[in-house]
């Protein structure tokens, strides 16, 4: 025993040292978060409830370190009152995904103090209560009562916001705040794609679209970071086009596509919407075309072909689609004729894609069947009933000539009837018609209209008429001015429930890269065609991620309208000629 006991003690000590050296052991039921947490100092104090109850608020604008200390320099003090609760509103400069870090000083009593925190994508939303307004705590908590510690810190929240209102709730207490920082949570990934031209408005729109999608690239590819923090696979299509143009083959796309397939057993429709199952197939095809990952595509081939068979069952003998779960985008929803025209177009598009997938996956037995479905569908061409979204899909599918669609519907009152989601397909159809300048004008006016109202990300929905006599979202509401966030919105996004960071609105980013820079990827990512359309621009330059590396181009137009092009292509990438 005298020999064994020291041996056991030494063995236990060595084992303990090994475990300590290895750090925390991952559980088989855990997963790691690879996103970055960045702490952002507020840029402005937008509002104070009562300057006599709040001292040294400017101290909150000084860069901090997240650490409470005993010295207490530049402390902001809030004094409770039996009358008004002291409160202030912070501006962090741009839309963020994440929460708040509150660092406190030494206040009397050492007992925790209660505050109310309200987050907002606009100033008006941050100044609103959940009760008695259109503001909500759905999907993400944007208003909460929080107990903050004495001489410590607390981190709270998981939402989308730019503004934060802090209100002291305890009437008889004095709160000392060292710091209030935003916690920005995001994927730390490079912007491989870029776009610069002599038009700063277009440059800004490209950047804002890229940033909007970047914020939605969280654990999965979401639709919105405040509301709709879900994988809506149809809404993903414009986002995926932006990701392929800016970030390259990020894992968030296949991860999200896999999730939707895993939770959707046929014959159910993805997200309960038939068109979203169609978009899933179209995205699979786009992802392969961009990066050529045949093994990933093969993983889904059984589901793809079964889904295509299910879609074939939804064509009647007259060539009309008979899909259930009928939806294109919200503004089109009341227009049943337009919804039919859009779904008819999507059915043609998915079987056109099905033929290409059958060739790629070496399943030629499907090709004849899919072609017969296309021929049958093309025997019935619905009227879009003056709806731009549906008309655009008619052009993209080939059911109508693009020039006719552009002349008859898209170019008339061009900013009316455009939605942030299907606006991307309107732009695509106008490009097919050769109307690049008209499409660029819509980008400047429609998407630029959101920037004019203070947007730093693009919105779930927008109507250019909203801008009339409207206040900016980054300013306090003014008497006589329209609160564009609180007073507008429709369907499921009325008022402050309206998301001001929605990935489906990023269409101009990929459109400008594809059509103005003129970059389109072919042959499973092995080749690229460069066909620029500068419209009224004098020059444009930028980059585009490919499977071989980053492609860079610059186009310059001379006084006679001729374009000269400089290309820097990564090794292995083939440049296709006309």
What's the helix and strand layout?
Elements: H1 4-22, E1 36-40, E2 44-48, E3 54-55, E4 76-79, E5 87-104, E6 113-120, H2 123-126, E7 143-148, E8 153-168, E9 174-186, E10 194-197, H3 200-216, H4 236-246, H5 252-263, H6 274-291, H7 294-299, H8 301-312, H9 336-360, H10 367-378, H11 388-397, H12 402-410, H13 423-432, H14 436-452, H15 484-487, H16 507-516, E11 519-522, E12 527-530, E13 539-546, E14 549-557, E15 563-568, E16 574-576
Parallel strand pairs: 12-16
Antiparallel strand pairs: 1-9, 2-5, 3-4, 4-9, 5-8, 5-9, 6-7, 6-8, 10-13, 11-12, 13-14, 14-15
Give your account of this protein's structure.
Among the domains are: 151 residues, Galactose-binding domain-like (Jelly Rolls, Sandwich); 200 residues, Sandwich (Maltose phosphorylase, domain 3), CATH 2.60.420.10. It is 34% helix and 20% strand. It has 16 helices and 16 strands. Strands 1, 2, 3, 4, 5, 6, 7, 8 and 9 form a 9-stranded antiparallel sheet that branches. Strands 10-13-14-15 form a 4-stranded antiparallel sheet. The protein has a 3-stranded mixed sheet with strand order 11-12-16. α4 packs parallel to α6 and α13 packs antiparallel against α14. The chain starts with a helix and ends with a strand. This is Alpha-L-rhamnosidase six-hairpin glycosidase domain-containing protein.
């Amino acid at each position: 025993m005298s020999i064994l006991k020291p041996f056991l003690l030494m063995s236990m000590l060595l084992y303990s040292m090994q475990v300590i050296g290895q750090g925390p052991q991952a559980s088989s039921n855990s997963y790691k978060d690879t996103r970055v947490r960045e702490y952002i100092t507020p840029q402005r104090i937008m509002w104070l409830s009562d300057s006599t109850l709040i001292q040294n608020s400017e101290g909150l604008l000084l860069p901090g370190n997240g650490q409470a200390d005993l010295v207490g320099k530049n402390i902001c003090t809030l004094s409770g009152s039996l009358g008004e609760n002291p409160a202030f509103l912070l501006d962090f400069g741009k839309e963020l995904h994440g929460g708040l870090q509150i660092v406190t000083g030494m206040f009397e009593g050492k007992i925790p103090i209660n505050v109310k925190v309200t987050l907002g994508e606009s100033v008006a939303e941050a100044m609103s209560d959940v009760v008695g307004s259109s503001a909500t705590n759905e999907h993400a908590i944007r208003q909460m009562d929080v107990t903050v510690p004495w001489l410590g810190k607390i981190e709270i929240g998981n939402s989308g916001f730019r503004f934060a209102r802090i209100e002291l709730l305890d009437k008889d207490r004095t709160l000392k705040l060292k710091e209030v920082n935003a916690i920005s949570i995001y994927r730390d990934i490079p912007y491989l794609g870029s776009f610069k031209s002599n038009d700063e408005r277009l440059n800004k729109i490209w950047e804002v679209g890229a940033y909007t999608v970047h914020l939605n690239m969280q654990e999965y590819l979401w639709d919105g970071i405040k509301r709709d923090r879900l994988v809506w696979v149809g809404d993903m299509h414009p986002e995926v086009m932006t990701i392929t143009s800016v970030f390259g083959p990020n894992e968030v796309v296949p991860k999200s596509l896999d999730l939707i397939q895993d939770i959707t057993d046929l014959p159910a429709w993805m997200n309960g919407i038939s068109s979203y199952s169609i978009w899933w197939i179209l995205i699979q095809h786009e992802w392969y075309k961009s990066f050529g990952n045949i093994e990933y595509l093969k993983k889904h081939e059984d589901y793809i072909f079964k889904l295509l068979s299910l879609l074939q069952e939804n064509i009647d003998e007259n060539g009309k689609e008979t899909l259930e779960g009928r939806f294109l985008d919200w503004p089109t929803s009341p227009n049943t004729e337009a919804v039919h025209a859009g779904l008819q177009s999507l059915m043609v598009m998915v079987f056109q894609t099905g033929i290409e997938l059958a060739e790629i996956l070496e399943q030629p037995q499907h090709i004849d069947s899919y072609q017969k479905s296309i021929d049958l569908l093309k025997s019935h061409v619905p009227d879009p009933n003056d709806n731009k979204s549906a008309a655009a899909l008619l052009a993209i599918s080939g059911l109508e000539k693009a020039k006719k669609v552009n002349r008859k519907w898209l170019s008339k009152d061009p900013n009316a009837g455009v939605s942030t989601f299907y606006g991307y397909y309107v732009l695509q159809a106008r490009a097919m018609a050769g109307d690049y300048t008209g499409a660029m004008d819509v980008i400047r006016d429609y998407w630029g209209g959101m920037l004019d109202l203070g947007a730093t990300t693009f919105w779930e929905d927008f109507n250019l008429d909203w801008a009339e006599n409207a206040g900016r979202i980054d300013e306090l509401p003014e008497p006589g001015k329209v609160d564009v966030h609180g007073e507008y919105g429709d369907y499921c996004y009325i008022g402050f429930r309206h998301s001001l960071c929605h990935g489906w609105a990023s269409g101009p980013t990929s459109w400008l890269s594809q059509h103005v820079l003129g970059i389109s990827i072919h042959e499973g990512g092995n080749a690229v065609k460069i066909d620029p359309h500068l419209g009224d621009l004098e020059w444009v330059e930028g980059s585009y991620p490919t499977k071989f590396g980053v492609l860079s181009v610059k186009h310059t137009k001379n006084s006679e309208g001729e374009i000269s092009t400089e290309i820097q292509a990564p090794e292995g990438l083939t440049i296709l000629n006309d």
